[in-house]
Structure formats: structure tokens, C-alpha cells
Amino acid sequence: MNSQSTAGFLGAVVAAIALAAAFIYGPSPSQMRNPQPAAVQQAAPAEAAPAAPVPRGPVIREVPNN
Prior knowledge:
The protein is built from 2 helices and no strands. The protein has helices at residues 3-25, 29-33. It starts with a helix and ends in a 33-residue tail after the last helix. By secondary structure, it is mainly alpha-helical. Residues 30-66 are annotated as: Disordered.
């Protein structure tokens, strides 16, 4: 076997493994027809504390030369 046919064979093996994993770990048809309802989110508190101001970047200060 030359390197091209070996690479083609290994590529086919990897593709078959990936396809099998997609079927095994993918959602079943019953899950696709009847999805679970999303969890109900709790309401945010009425009065939230104000957020801290966002820093604007580095502060450049003069350093005296000694």
C-alpha cells in the first residue's frame, strides 16, 4: 500500500467512528419531538445594588528620577 491509500483508509475509519459517535451520543427522535421545558428562572430582586464604575484603563503617573 502506498501512503495515499493508507491515508484514505485511515480517513474512512475516522469518519466511520465520528458518524457512529454522532448516532450514539446524539438526541433520540423522542427527545426531538418532546423537548423538556426550560427551567423557570427566578425573578431578579426589585432593588439591585448599583454596579461599581468600570475602570477606564491604566493610570500613568510621573515617577521622579533619582
